[in-house]
Amino acid sequence: MFFLFLIASFYGCQTSSPKTITFADNVVVAHRGAWKQKNLPQNSIAALKHAINLGCTGSEFDVRMTSDNVLIVTHDADYHDLLIEESTYAQLSKFKLSNGETLPTLRDYIIAGMQNNNATGLVCEIKPSKTEGRNALMAENVLKLVKELKAENYILSYISFSYAILQRIKELDAHAKTQYLDGSKAPKRLKEDGITGLDYLVYKYKRRPEWIASAKEKGLILNAWTVNSTEDIDWFLANDFDYITTDEPELVFKRSEKSPTKRGYKLVWSDEFNYKGKPDSTKWAYDYGFLSNREKQYYTDSLKNARVENGTLIIEAHKEKIANAKYKSDEFKNKSWVQYIAEIDTAQYTSARLKTDGLASWKYGRIEVRAKLPRGVGLWPAIWMLGENRKEVGWPECGEIDIMEHVGFNPDSIFGTIHTKAFNHMKGTERGKKIFIDKPYETFHVFAVEWTHEKMDFILNDTVYNHIKNEHKTIAEWPFDQEFYLIMNVSVGGMLGGQKGIDDSVFPQQMVVDYVRVFQQKEE
């Protein structure tokens, strides 16, 4: 009890104020410093200095303790074949880092991190020990050193795979920011136990995306490790994480500049397809049968035609008769049984058309889809939107936004188009433009529209290729001040797709969708 009193007294009083720092306004935490681009040793002071020079919000590093209780900065449990917990610092420091640095002590590392630094916080990971009592001792010694160096304000957060270490830190310093690394505890538990944030591996969040909203609702810090691919970086930016821990800080800075969140957009709806089987019925409905444009495919809800696997949505067209056709109320609604059977008998191709009609719709925003397209003459994939009032006023009065259309006989182009009562393909007045697309069948591309009351921008990856202004005439020209729902499909043949015939040798063909994201700004 007396020992605990002494510790509490030590951490509760200060002889002078700690130094101050204002952390940079970005999400970038350099993982073990910014080491990769300059080929620096991980966890080196040089890598820390480079993170500071880049202006990262944080620089993460790993702390272990030697047999003589010296705190050092290194990742692995052994160093040059010496177990750290069983070796003295004198033994370990004989081996230099690859750039000639001496193996850094935590003292030297923190001092270096406080020099010429007014923006980069230190993210201190305390590596757990299997030796009884050692975890608590490490936590106590780390905080004692931080206090001695007056570096409290330089610590962005303490992180660990050991829950006990984080809890001990909170006992010693109620103001310390702590983030759990293991990924096994829900935000509710962290909040109850006084842990201030999550710092989980990428796939943990994708497996439990509901934890993101829960953490935000509870005011917990959101961090992720180790986020290195463009796709993952964009996902965490879209989900408005507080921090992104990465081996690629330069790339995160670059993607941050291009992210919709940089321009005030917030993610309001998405499907990342991180599940298996049928598309999520709370997000997607189906169209059935023969529909329009003299297309040759029969739309179904079969797993053969629409399914989620390997983190993607697959919409697949087949050259086939419909086997074991089942009655669907939506199919049969406006048809006689004779007509329904006749369609089944005449269908030569199957595919799928998914829509958010009745489930989700939006007025203005940025709608983006990352996808690979199907290959072959006669294929006509599309990502598009219709006005919610279509059933009342019909087409084209409801308006149509073609975010992306592609036809197989024109393999190096995509089209972005609007259709309205005044501007539509039946009159030859539709307002559309095309852009060259490289490797649409082998490579994922981002197809997007940014839509406000004043304009519509059609975007391939980061390039705006069709800009349409609202001329403020009548609803015949601009029926776009209402909610629209999203549609994705692969058609076969038809008025546009079938202009050069259908190559039956290419089937089956897939449109593979990595994600669908809808962003809106506050005023929208």
Automatic annotation (TrEMBL):
Q: Which SUPFAM superfamilies match?
A: Concanavalin A-like lectins/glucanases (SSF49899), PLC-like phosphodiesterases (SSF51695)
Task: Please name the Pfam families in this protein's record.
Answer: GDPD, Glyco_hydro_16
Q: Which InterPro entries match?
A: Beta-glucanase-like (IPR000757), ConA-like_dom_sf (IPR013320), Glycosyl_Hydrlase_16 (IPR050546), GP_PDE_dom (IPR030395), PLC-like_Pdiesterase_TIM-brl (IPR017946)
Where would I find the GH16 domain in this sequence?
239-524
What is stated as this protein's family in its record?
Belongs to the glycosyl hydrolase 16 family.
Give the signal peptide, or none.
none
One Gene Ontology term of the biological-process aspect is:
carbohydrate metabolic process
- The protein depicted here goes by the name Family 16 glycosylhydrolase
Which superkingdom? Bacteria
Q: Which GO terms describe its molecular function?
A: hydrolase activity, hydrolyzing O-glycosyl compounds; phosphoric diester hydrolase activity
Which residues are in the GP-PDE domain? 26-256
